[in-house]
Amino acid sequence: MPRIEHANSLPLAVYRVKYLPPCFDTIPHNDEAQGAYSISFESSSSITAMNFEACFDLIAESSANAYAGSSIGWSPAKKRKEMKLPDLRYLLLIDSDKAIQGFLSFMLTYEDGHEVIYCYELHLFQAVQRQGFGRHLMGLMEAVGKNAVVEKSMLTVFVENGAALKFYERLGYSKDEYSPEPRKMRNGTIKQPTYAILSKSLLESATDGGDQPEG
User: Fold this and answer.
1) 55 near 90, Cβ under 8 Å?
2) Which pLDDT does position 196 carry in this prediction?
3) What is the distance between the alpha carbons of residues 139 and 154, in angstroms, rounded to a whole number?
């Protein structure tokens, strides 16, 4: 069985042990916040209805306007359907009251024939931004990609979101070869893309031995 299909066919508990770092659910942080937050790993089928709605609401609150103003467009129904894709996995940032404060969703998949790990969403409530949680969630996702021995990590970001672009650049991401380019219209004007596709190679730091699927 091909590597990507093998990984996505694994039960959630096996996937977690095979690809996530040990103690992934604990967050190294300052003394004040130590123990106040944890990470929960879920699939699109295991996430509770309440947590699913909390994730959707966070996307709508933080990005609906950006989606609507882009060439992608905003459709709550389409977004909900995407969030239920069978191979999508979730890293949920949970506070001490068991409430979601942020999340990252990702998928081991193919992009233009390449084996990749694709970050679908990364959102944090404003109260927990700029505290290292986003970097931590990205690091966990990249660890999955490295342990699955995929070529690169990829994501889509709106070009109007300068803060997000700088954040991903600091993590080593750059414009992917398949990112849309400006287009010259018939009237001579240049139409700039509303989003960019960024990527980061994971091969150099992949775990020795890597993933060896059976079959």
Assistant:
1) yes
2) 94
3) 13
pTM: 0.88
Q: How confident is the model at residue 206 (pLDDT cuts 50, 70, 90)?
A: very low
99: CB partners within 8 A, 6+ apart:
54
Helix (H) or strand (E) holding 94: strand 89-95
Q: Which tens digits make up the pLDDT trace of 143-194? A: 999 999 999 999 999 999 999 999 999 999 999 999 988 787 777 788 888 8
Residue 94 neighbours by CB under 8 Å, 6+ apart: 37, 38, 39, 40, 100, 101
Among 193, 104, 105, 119, residue whose Cα is nearest residue 152: 119
Task: Give the H or E element holding residue 37.
Answer: strand 37-43
Average pLDDT over residues 79-97: 96
Q: Which two tokens stand for residue 50?
A: 């309440």
Mode of pairing for the β-strands spanning 114-124 and 100-111: antiparallel
Distance between CA atoms of residues 58 and 79, nearest Å: 12
Cα dist. 4→42, 64, 107, 124 in Å? Answer: 18, 31, 10, 28
Cβ neighbours of residue 36 under 8 Å, at least 6 residues apart?
A: 29, 95, 96
Q: Are 108 and 82 in contact (CB under 8 A)?
A: no
CA 13 to chain centre: 19
Instruction: Measure Cα distances from 130 to 110, 125, 207 in Å.
Output: 31, 10, 29
Q: How, if at all, do strands 152-158 and 174-175 pair?
A: unpaired
